[in-house]
Amino acid sequence: MAELSSPLVLGDLHLKNRVIMAPLTRSRATADRVPTAMMAEYYAQRASAGLIISEATVISEEANGYLNTPGLFTDAQVEGWKVVTQAVHDKGGLILAQLWHVGRVSHPDLLNGETPVSASAVQQAGQVSLLRPKRDYVVPRPLEISEIKTIVEQYKQAAIRAKAAGFDGVELHAANGYLIDQFLQSSTNQREDEYGGSVENRVRLLLEVTDVLIEVWGASRVGVHLAPRGDEHDMGDAAPRETFGYALEQLGKRQIAFFFTREYLADDSISEEMKQRSGGVPYIANMKLSRDDAIDLLALGKADAVSFGKAYIANPDLFERLVQDAPLNELVFENMIGSQTAEGYIDYPFLSVESAI
What we know:
It contains 12 helices and 12 strands. By secondary structure, it is of the alpha/beta class.
């Protein structure tokens, strides 16, 4: 019976436990998207996790939708990430780079006046995160076939840079309403070419990008991040079981290291079905999990590992706290995203410090 502290093998990744740090945008990189020494300390503090998945990291300047998120498309960014990965490795941890293109979840003010791109010209409801004064999302520009091929190549180059930066592998961000998800789900993909219409066509970009990541890393060091509930950034799919089930069948044939879903537990959850259709690709569960949820999922074999996001912001030693059933630090929302300060970032106390007081 698997437990929180049980080791786990995901492809070529040998995890010391089954508690995963989820990717968390914190916007602490420089204006040029270079990781900082403060980021290295932040990740090293959390290296007792079985695996760290880095905050979403853009594959090009055109891929961005937020200020001060890190990138993997310049030499300076690679050098910055080297400091981060070395700090994690020095603490005995593993860290993957999560590769990201936001697609329509951006604004011309973040793209030097250029219109955001997407699968189709479907405007997202709501207003752009963190930009002030507040402004609505704009109608995105559908990508041309040639542009899609360019973006696939940008993912490959980012994966090459991730290897140079010392990461242990990569995770493709195909969730939460960002570009890959915009191609996957029927509400945002209204194309009539080979990237739209049928499930096979809508899944095509996900698989093309996965394949180039495998070219660089091998399937045993590539994971994919999905959000089958479609509950972020105005998403939706007419038949999520069909769409995401087919995607997992195809990813399973590629024998990727794992898939990760952002899907809270409910009667209509489909992540377990996705795992079955994948032929046994290891599954990392995530979203609003309690300690008891995590223990039950592992004990019953419904998930191979469990992941926590906000709890890892406030508790650098979350793994130890979960194992000991110790109290958790309270999350402070101020300075969580968009601040350049250490406050609310690297100043949360460890359990050992609290115990000594």
